[in-house]
UniProtKB/TrEMBL annotation:
Protein species of origin: Dehalococcoides mccartyi (strain CBDB1)
Keywords: 4Fe-4S, Cell membrane, Iron, Iron-sulfur, Membrane, Metal-binding, Repeat, Signal
MF (Gene Ontology): 4 iron, 4 sulfur cluster binding; metal ion binding
UniProt domain 4Fe-4S ferredoxin-type: residue ranges: 350-380
High-level lineage: Bacteria, Bacillati, Chloroflexota, Dehalococcoidia, Dehalococcoidales
Protein name, UniProt field: Reductive dehalogenase
Amino acid sequence: MSRFHSTLSRRDFMRGIGLASVGLGTLSSVTPRFTDLDEIISDEKANYKQPWWVREQDQGVTEVDWDKKQTFNQAQYDNRVAHLRPSPLDDEYRTLPGTFVSELYYSNMKTFIQENKPGFSLRDRGIYWGWASPMIKDVLGYRRAGGIGSGSGESFTGYDFLDLVDTPESIGVPRWEGTPEENSRMLRSALKLMGASTVGFVEINDNNKKLVFTGSSLVGKPVVWEDTENIYQTNEKQVIPNKCKWAVVYTIRQPLETTKRGPSWISDGAVGIAYDQCDIVQYRLQAFLKCIGYQAVGGNIFGLGPLPAWGELSGLGEVGRLQNLITPEFGPLIRESKFNLIDLPVAPTKPVNFGAQRFCHTCLKCADACPGNALQKNREPSWDITPKYDEYVKPELFNSPGHKTWYFDHFKCRKFWEESASFCGVCQGTCVFSKEKLQSIHEFVKPVIGQTSLFNSFFYNMDRAFGYGLHSEDIENWWDMNLPTFNIDYSEKPYI
Ligand code: SF4
Ligand code: SF4
């Protein structure tokens, strides 16, 4: 049974949507009779697909004479070669071997870039190259089928398809040059088009360099820094050029309604699709930077380093008890705060404090809900990693000491994944900050949490009373919800 039955009366609901002042008596004559939200949701009219001004009719608006209509074999289709030979246009317009376009296209492309034509500059060309990423999906699909896993080693240098990307050298123009501030603005705009929601920047120093992994369990060779021009890898190592002195960090959103219907394969779908988005956005960034004369070191599914930490360093959120990044906009409903090391100078963004971690001190909602008992329930964070609790588990293999937090037990978490045949995600779906901005009074609550911890317990209790969080008992109704594309409301405006 849905939680709405017990938490909201019809009167409360009407008041909530601002209709109470009209008078419920008056409303009764013009509105359908519902006793609670579940009835509203299950009514067939709640499932409407089009606005009222879109009429349904029996035939399409285009008239068709079905007697004259013939089938068409697309194999005979030609919009180029068959019309060129013989013709004066032949050489200029014919597709160049191994490409999709003609000599004319290439010569115009170079001219437009050299002339800095609006919409056709070098950096605009970098945006264009985002289109090639569907091709890496084939590669990913192939590699996954081969059991190698998302990204594997190839994401580090950026997949073979980057060879197709135009470069300043191939076009015959100088590479893009901008101030760090201009470059930050440019990357933020590019990444948002590519699929990222929020974007931050970090300048690499001796301290945060320790948050770049020195190897990857997926790739099985060391990651080292060298004085070299280009990112490269051999059978022995993966090499980050020392000139990659900046990190660009970006969030990929994960949908609320789908995530909180877990643990299930539906919530797993939300996770997997968000991971795919991470791969796609990363590839697009690598292509973009290559086109304007720079480079980005790519990470596989585990990332180039602990991703929540980079999210915090770049000001995209705070690491919470659940050991994910809690963002001001979307809470922990992201996968991931992905980062890439780049050699394009950018202006760093500062870390933020909006009271999330402080809220975690008195809120244990995720830890209480964790079916694997993997999250810490201590009120205060600690410098101590997960204590050794039996002779087999080796916490030093999954916890990296040196920061004060609620270290979590990755083994217990993973054990539950096996038991439940799912990737769980209950902590994400449960977190008090896992809300959509327009959904609730949360936009009022967040500024208060950001200023004082006085009301944290009150807000925690309210959150429970309102029945927010997991909807494990409503998993099946996801199929009838008609959610937005990617199940995400992208009309919400990020703060950054
Ligand atoms: S994914 Fe599940 S088992 Fe793992 S920490 Fe989160 S709630 Fe616990
Ligand atoms: S559920 Fe509560 S304790 Fe857990 S991460 Fe969210 S705010 Fe922190």
